[in-house]
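Reviewer comment 2.1 asked that we show a complete input and output for one of the modelled complexes. We chose the PBG case, as it is the one discussed in the main text.
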Amino acid sequence: MLELKKPKTPLQNLSSRPRRLRQSAALRESVAETHLRPADFIAPFFVMPGRGPAEPVAALPGVSRLCVDDFLREAERALRLGVRSFLLFGVLPEEAKDPLGASSADPEGPVPRALRAARKAFGEEVVLYTDVCLCAHTTHGHCGVIMETPRGPRIDNDLSLQRLAAMALAHAEAGADFVAPSDMMDGRVAYIRRALDQAGHTEVGILSYAVKYASAFYGPFREAAKSAPSFGDRQSYQMDPRNAREALKEAHLDEAEGADMLMVKPALAYLDVLARLRPTTTLPLVAYNVSGEYAMLKAAARAGALDEARAVREVLFALKRAGADLIVSYHALEALASGWL
Ligand code: PBG
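Response of the prediction step:
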């Protein structure tokens, strides 16, 4: 039987013993470098027209498409948890779509209706963000307008800007605090800024999805928003996952065009991008912990491969630690309600 005897003098004179700071939960709490508050989160919601029952999204366990009344109820629950920022996505039935995505600027669309209802119910208690993009409104499911060219069908950058600005205006008119363009067309921040200002909406801000990669991790979202492209992919407008210097270029262009906040999306495979961007801008940075990242953890937890509470906590703190001021996450409300943070 092996026996160890603790000697009277230390075996080693270590100049530093980092473990001293990890002795107890109280001590660890007092030297923790990163903190998460409910106000750090933006909760995403999918709103649909009509008054139908909530539609669970199979690919996103725990997430449903909601009618406006159900959204108000969920928003109230979020407020009780201290989350006051919401990001709204409109979901439309196939019949409401057309090639130009006209429904995106409909003042009676689900997002403008949800904005007016939330403003009426909660006033200045809430901060309302809206996703601005054509993909949930076009029959082809692309984020811009498609034109025939001698080289085949192409997304027309500048024609898309007109539609995006019209959508942003409809949201501003309905009471959005921030519009969040996620289409990745060039020059859209400047174009939307000018359109908002000309209509008198100088106080409405722009959260730019400045650094948005062409990612496999959006899969479940496209089921939720019914926005998968019917042909091709988004690589001609979203960024190549191999590029990080280009992320700085995209972010700085959008800042120069008048963005008030910048987003990096997805989050987990791009923590280096977040960390590199952080010291180069004074704007608030937002990390989008996207649908595939959420679905991955849910699936692993369900398979018994890991402890969901601890894994979610680790992921959300990682985003904050890497430099995010704000986090969009489908985990946010459950994590706060369950005391995971
Ligand atoms: C719209 C949009 C997408 C997401 C946010 N806005 C999908 C896409 O670009 O295909 C993805 C969000 C998520 O995966 O949670 N363009």
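The longest strand covers residues 205-212. We note this here for comparison with the apo prediction described in Section 3.2.
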